[in-house]
Amino acid sequence: MVSIRWHTRDFNRVLQQFTRHHKARVWDVLRKVAFDVIRAVAIRTPVDTGRARAAWVAFLERNGVTAPPVKSKHADNKAIEEGRKSASWRFSKLANTITVTNGVHYITALEFGSSQQAPEGMLRRTLAEFKGRFIKYMRRRK
């Protein structure tokens, strides 16, 4: 399991301003952001057997969000099912937090470049790009 801490001070400040200005609910915006981030991470997750991507996809599908395909020419239905079962998540409206876990045993190795398909990882790269884009987007919409 990989644990990444996303420093969100700037993000939270801009999110509060955005929701106040647009009379949007923070929770609704946060859920949308979480789904967009995990969809992007899933797309970047290398696919061999499909196990690692299946964990991200399970989160999206079980929450009614369109997800990228899991299959590849080497996809293994048993591995895909194991990946789906390894996914977990927790929503906390009170704390405005969404925790998504990919429990595939080699996800940390993938994140830190063990695959030639994603040598820069998936999650850290996506969060860095997304944070900058989202803050710019929200500031333009004020």
- What is the helix/strand order? HHHHEEHH
- The number of domains is 1
Strand arrangement within the widest β-sheet reads: 1-2
State Rg.
16 Å
Q: DSSP strand (E) fraction?
A: 5-15%
Distance between the termini: 38 Å
Could you report the average pLDDT, rounded to the nearest whole number? 86
Number of strands: 2
Helical run tally: 6
Supply the helix-strand structural class.
mainly alpha
Helical content band: 40-55%
Report the uncertain regions. none
Shape: elongated
| Biggest β-sheet description | 2 strands, antiparallel
Detailed description of the structure:
This protein has 142 residues and is mainly alpha-helical. The protein has one domain. Helices cover 55% and strands 8% of the residues. The protein is built from 6 helices and 2 strands, in the order ααααββαα. A two-stranded antiparallel ribbon has the order 1-2. Strand 1 and strand 2 form a beta hairpin. The radius of gyration is 16 Å and the shape is elongated.
What descriptive keywords fit this protein?
single chain; 142 residues; mainly alpha; two-stranded antiparallel sheet; 6 helices; 55% helix; elongated
Describe the structure concisely.
Helices cover 55% and strands 8% of the residues. With 142 residues, it is mainly α. The chain has one domain.
Secondary-structure blueprint:
Elements: H1 9-22, H2 26-44, H3 51-62, H4 77-86, E1 87-92, E2 97-102, H5 107-111, H6 123-140
Antiparallel strand pairs: 1-2
Helix pairs in contact: 1-6, 2-3, 2-6, 3-4
